[in-house]
Amino acid sequence: MARQRATTVQLLVDAAARVFERKGFTDATISDIATEAGVSKPTVYQYVNSKRWLLETIVEQLIYPLKDGIDQIMASDRTEREKLAAYLRLHVDNAIKYQTYYLVLTADQHQLSTQALRNYRSWARDVNAATENLLTDCVKAGVVRSDLDIGIVTNLLNGLLVSVTSWYRPSGRVGAEALYQHIHDMLAGFIEPERHAGTAQG
């Protein structure tokens, strides 16, 4: 029963995300969500409290897995270069997997309750702090250029990674791996080249 409930709730959350993305939170109705999910309106109310609860659940399901992934990367025994690569890949993967969720968050975050908005902003600060820590470690390890302002780079980098959700199309000509490689290659002026053993030093 618990598994069935969790499955049904997730079905409704996913349906709500698609409806909110198409119509916006204000214009979307519970009836729209029920139709999208292929269930009756009473069934929706059997599992969820309100339209706003669905919106806040969408945001929670987006932000917390990403933060957990960043924490795991930071706590791992990878090298700083490997951590940075894993960080970029995590963002790309999440931008693709949760693209609709990101679009809803961008358009409708002002509809969140005061507490939910506070939680989201706290999460955003935590992600920025983790990014700054990672980049600082990368500078110390000689992976990232030392002449750049880490605070500015953090905001530019995270803004770039989130912007993927506004234009990327999974059915397009660029796959997830190619997208990651494009982003990595574009940052070549920011990331110091890897030096292999035996490479002559200038």
UniProtKB/TrEMBL annotation:
InterPro entries: DNA-bd_HTH_TetR-type_CS, Homeodomain-like_sf, HTH-type_TetR-like_transc_reg, HTH_TetR, KstR2_TetR_C, Tet_transcr_reg_TetR-rel_C_sf. Pfam families: TetR_C_24 (PF17932), TetR_N (PF00440). The keyword Transcription applies. Residues 29-48 bind DNA. PROSITE patterns: HTH_LACI_1, HTH_TETR_1, HTH_TETR_2. One of its GO terms (molecular function) is transcription cis-regulatory region binding. It comes from the Bacteria. Residues 6-66 form the HTH tetR-type domain. Keywords: DNA-binding, Repressor, Transcription, Transcription regulation. PANTHER family: HTH-TYPE TRANSCRIPTIONAL REGULATOR RUTR (PTHR30055), HTH-TYPE TRANSCRIPTIONAL REPRESSOR KSTR2 (PTHR30055:SF175). This is TetR family transcriptional regulator. It comes from Tamaricihabitans halophyticus.
